[in-house]
Amino acid sequence: MLYFDANATTPCAPEVQEAMRPYWSGAFANASSPHRAGRMAAQAVAVARRSVAECLDARPQEIVFTSGATESTNLVFWGLLLAPRTRRHVVVSSIEHKAVLESAALLEEQGFDVTRLPVTPDGVVDLDAAARVITQETALVSVQAANNEIGTIQPVLPLARLAHQAGAFFHVDAVQALGKMPVSMRDWECDFASFSAHKIYGPKGIGALFVNGGPLRWPWPRPLRGGGQEGGLRPGTLNVPGIVGFGTACEMLRRRPVNTLETITSLRNLLEKNLVHIYKDDIFIIGNSSLRLPNTLTVAIKDTSAELIISTIKNCMLGRSSACMGNSKITSHVLKALGLPDNTGENVIRISLLESVTQDEITKFIHFLQDAITTVRRIK
Ligand code: PLP
User: CB atoms < 10 A from the CB of 266, how many?
Assistant: First the structure.
């Protein structure tokens, strides 16, 4: 079975599972307990924190472990919401993940002004529009580093600078970027960033919030209250196995062959070239060709139902433009933001490759897809 839905999630690597194993039973102690076993658990967390920090080009004390990017992002928006006297304008891009868009909508319900930045037809945030809308009233700018549906890469540093020039904070949703492009908290000059381990061969239900300067520099009231763990920003007993798994996944990321991204780019390009050659004007590639994640290829196939392709294709797991869309026929907000016609989503499939993909798998996939398209068109 081929798995071509890596942007939805990745398998938890065997090495990661192995590293986590002791912390379920033998070394189960609470990382806050003062006894020896507790100190050992705390030590494992400290090692993982250093590993994650190194991957993000951050300092260990700037990493707050959470249950994933959704929670990390919610913490940022809830913090702002709770701030008693603050600017009341927020800027997000129109192609953010729902974790950001719904958090922004919450602020809007509470009286904030929210501006949703337009993107170019090939899915890149319009910097001129950003410069026009970010003002002295703006409290927070939140833009993703890379898009989950179409893989486009956003100009993070210029946006962070625009935010800071106006005295606003900058949050980046870096979930899809980690492992697929260079990620650096220092180079990106961001205040906050959200991450999930399950996109980089780590376990589900664990992630991180990067806070520039660490929780002591958190500018707003703390939204969650409890035992004070994670600098008081994410109280609650630490998920030691998950944290160890995240740390190990980051270690593997640092140690993987240096040409990993080049290899995956060339295999993705090979796939794209073949599909364009076979389907010519019947296939439309969505998203900027150079500012795009190396593993992502999102295509609209003329007059062919994506839902039917996905249910018909043999031996392959494939995504719609976003995993969250399920089987719905609705065109996602991302495709709409590109200005594509309202029914485009019906024909869009997202092909997102795992790091381990091979040329043989690409060849097999092309055959499986061709068979599925032929079958679907015959049904029609
Ligand atoms: N942001 C982006 C860009 C994502 O792709 C995802 C997950 O698909 C999330 C946020 C949310 O991550 P999680 O579901 O792990 O909280």
Answer: 13
* pLDDT for the residue numbered 380: 72
CA of 377 to the centre of ligand 1 (A): 33
Say if CB 299 and CB 311 are below 8 A apart.
Answer: no
Whether pTM exceeds 0.85? yes
What is the structure's pLDDT at 322?
Answer: 55
**By the 8 A CB rule, do 209 and 194 touch?**
yes
Q: Count of alpha carbons within 13 Å of 133, Cβ hemisphere only?
A: 20
Any idea which residues carry the catalytic annotation?
324
Place of tokens 């495709």: 335
List, as one string, the DSSP characters of 114-151.
Answer: EEEE-B-TTS-B-HHHHHHH--TTEEEEE--SB-TTT-
The pLDDT, as a whole number, for residue 202 is: 98
Q: Is 196 in the pocket of ligand 1 (CB under 6 A)?
A: yes
- Mutation choice for ligand 1 from 125, 196, 322, CB with most ligand atoms inside 8 A: 196
Rg of the chain's alpha carbons, rounded to an integer?
Answer: 21
Distance 274 CA to ligand 1 centre (A): 30
**Gap from CA of 82 to ligand 1 centroid (Å):** 24
Stretches where the chain sits below pLDDT 50 are none
Distances (CA, A) of 235 to 216, 244, 365: 14, 18, 45
**Each residue's pLDDT tens digit, 329-354:** 678 999 999 999 888 899 999 999 99
* Ligand 1 pocket member 148 (CB < 6 A): yes
Amino acid 342: pLDDT = 84
Which pLDDT score is estimated for 86?
84
Question: Does ligand 1 come within 6 angstroms of the Cβ of 200?
Answer: no
